[in-house]
Amino acid sequence: MNRSPAADRIVSAAVTHFAHRGYDASSLADIAEAVGIRKASLYAHFDSKDDLYMQIFAEALRMEQDIAHQCFVSEESKTLPGLTYCTNLIARYDESDYLKFLLRAGYMPPAVLAVPIYSGHETYLAQLQEAFTGRLRAWTDTPDTLADEDVRLYSHAYIGIVDSLQVKLVYTDTAHAAVRLTALERMLSNALATAIKSGAVA
Question: Transmembrane region positions (predicted)?
Fold first, then answer.
């Protein structure tokens, strides 16, 4: 996204405010003060608080989609499908205001912006599900080891895992999210092993 240096400074300050305070508790006056400009000067770059918020949301969403894609394409062939992204998600959370912003927006969206935010969040989850499906197909010994219905079932289960981890990150902390991932990883691994064994026997 092409922005002026001044707009970049505004976005940088706004991401931090929105990520840590939320939409309602973040004011344009506070953001302007953090940048060292007058509030009125913000309107030379953004039409409104909603415009600023949604531009950041779109950017954060693109960044997360790119990271997720890289996690899936670089995942080791023997690694449980999707585990790399889940681990990466937890590892980045404390240091990334963009990730904090994205998850806070997804689970606690401003009422006035809920519809486009939910739409963007669902698109992101659908892309994760598609990536997981591809990895699961490649992970099994043969393409027909799991029936199509099983693949769909486990792809939905994976999105449930991601959703559960993100909720833990938003409402608790990375330590609790890591404990949950360990438990969910074992459950998914055991379930897949059983399903693959059954498919091979059949």
Answer: none
Cα–chain center distance at 150:
24
Closest CA to 96 of 7, 171, 19, 11: 19
Distance (Å, whole) CA 27 – CA 39: 10
- The pLDDT tens digits for 1-48 are 678 999 999 999 999 999 999 999 999 999 999 999 999 999 999 999
Nearest CA to 132 out of 188, 197, 179 is that of: 188
DSSP state of 80: P
How many whole angstroms separate alpha carbon 104 and alpha carbon 91?
17
Domain boundaries, the chain: 1-45, 57-198
Contact 81, 69 (CB under 8 A): no
pTM assigned to the model: 0.93
For 57-198, CATH gives 1.10.357
Write the class of the CATH domain 1-45: mainly alpha
In the block, residue with structure tokens 């080891």: 145
- Annotate 28-48 with b (16+ C-beta within 10 A) or e (fewer): beebbeebebeeeebeebbee
- Per-residue burial over 168-192, b = 16 or more CB atoms within 10 Å of its CB, e = otherwise: bbbeeebeebbebbeebbeebeeeb
Alpha carbon distance 71, 139 (integer Å): 15
